[in-house]
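Dear colleague,

Thank you for sharing your sequence with our group. We've completed the structure prediction you requested, and as agreed, I am returning the results in plain text so they can be pasted directly into your records. Please verify that the sequence below matches your submission; if there's any discrepancy, let me know and we will rerun it promptly.
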Amino acid sequence: MSHPNPRRFTLKTLSAAAVVASLGFAGLSAQAADTIKVGVLHSLSGTMAISETVLKDTVLMAIDEINAKGGVLGKKLEPVVVDPASNWPLFAEKTKQLLGQDKVSVIFGCWTSVSRKSVLPVVEEMNGLLFYPVQYEGEELSKNVFYTGAAPNQQAIPAVEYLMSKDGGSAKRFVLLGTDYVYPRTTNKILRAFLKSKGVADKDIDEKYTPFGHSDYQTIVADIKKFSAGGKTAVISTINGDSNVPFYKELGNAGLKAKDVPVVAFSVGEEELRGVDTKPLVGHLAAWNYFMSIKNPTNAEFIKKWSEYAKAKKIPGHMDKPLTNDPMEATYIGIHMWKQAVEKAKSTEVDKVIAAMAGQTFKAPGGFTSKMDEKNHHLHKPVFIGEIKADGQFNVVWKTPGPIKAQPWSPFIEGNDKKKDEPEKK
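Please find the predicted structure tokens below.
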């Protein structure tokens, strides 16, 4: 009979003891924990960092603000920041870590739909809570997610209706140009069906996709120029991340002006235009539910708060040029509504908070009171279309009279009329 290796035995015993000790300490610290942990899940590196880094800072600003006023239920909020690095499977791993190991009560995060879809099964399985702050393609509803960005009827559809109108230039032909993943493809499927319903023929729609991080837009912009010779053309851009910089530079180089071929973007705001010479882009459009240029006291206060925070924390780029944008506003609304729901529920327990979120309202910087729909986990939001100005800000050229209720299931996709407008209880 061979004796077990005594060294291996000692190592095993030690590691087992370490596990027990760490569990013991974890138990102690959990009991003593006088904080509520909040997960922050945004890409701080990779192709999406250009858009997502500032959302991490927005969550941290809101946490500071809430803590300065006494926290939530008498406890301070403690942020747990992770970097999923524009790597979609890593979003799922980091979510497991946040919920399982860090025991966060809520997660604020994701930008792309592919990152959200990577996180979705994890938050559902572990009964976590995700607040998702970016416009998206709809076609989804989860009990564990609150969508504070726009559904297609709160951004994409109104933007295309505007381009077809006299004020928007009466476009007859459309280039649907996007990054190659679920959000642009599904949005364009909805837009194609919508355009068809308006009598636009297939030959008048040109659909193109480029990979994440794509940087050479010469051929594509030349193709757009050629396509536009066939009649009044508009470009619907669902390009995401840092590819927007070379795309807009190429538009400028090719002399493709807004009066000839307007581009309306759904993922370009003040932050994405920071690194671009915006003079050749004057008049091109973006559709959002908020712009920094909107004038009202709530927005003035929001911009002031952000500017002071950015200077105090020395946030790169924002110390000398603080900018706010739509997903920042949606993030800010989300964290404040979550706080209100926790206080209403008198608990951070996920199911209780979900129930308390129904009908929550918050005075949004965009100038309206945002309301979380009683059933469908989406915000009622106004829609604005803005023209790019030479200074990289937007001049609002069109807006809805008030907030629009989200339609998560697009009526332009077959079979959606049979889908429920509230998440199923699992």
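Summary note from our side: Confidence is low (pLDDT under 50) at residues 1-32.

Kind regards,
the structure core
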